[in-house]
Amino acid sequence: QSLPHFWYRLTKVIMKPNFMMIVQMYQIEGFVALGRMMHPATNELAKSQEHAQWIIELLGVIQEKTKGNLEPSEARMLEETLSTLRLNYVEEFGNLSAPNSAGNLA
Q1: Helix-then-strand count for the chain, H and E
Q2: Residues 69/18, Cβ–Cβ less than 8 Å
Q3: How far is Cα 35 from Cα 75, in angstroms, rounded to an integer?
């Protein structure tokens, strides 16, 4: 039995899915894309500016669409996650709204 399958089964039994788990999942994915965490499947740094930007934009959409419908702790976690990812993005790649070499927003 593989370790990822074991953890999937363990979390499915012990922890019921909730909003904070969704935010945490994207937070981890964002840190991997920023090169701040090892990719869990390859155990290597896998930096991707485009993917980091996409994760930040996705969490921004989630924040916008859930405004007023979250528990205070959920809203705080989402805001702190977005702030942390944005600060790390700027530190790693520069301004979030500056066009990159392909002409897209970075």
Answers
A1: 4, 0
A2: no
A3: 26
CA angle 46/48/49 to nearest 5° reads 150
Q: Is the pTM of this model over 0.90?
A: no
Closest CA to 78 of 62, 65, 94, 90: 62
Q: What is the pLDDT of residues 81-91, one digit of tens each?
A: 999 999 999 99
Count Cβ atoms below 10 Å from residue 36 Cβ, excluding itself.
Answer: 17
Q: What one-character-per-residue DSSP string does 25-63 give? A: HHHHHHHHHTTSS--TTT-S----HHHHHHHHHHHHHHH
Those residues with Cβ within 8 angstroms of residue 29's Cβ, 6 or more apart along the chain or in another chain: 51, 55
- What is 14-29 written as a DSSP string? H----HHHHHHHHHHH
Residue 82's nearest CA partner among 51, 49, 100, 58 is 58
Check: CB of residue 92 under 8 Å from CB of residue 32: no
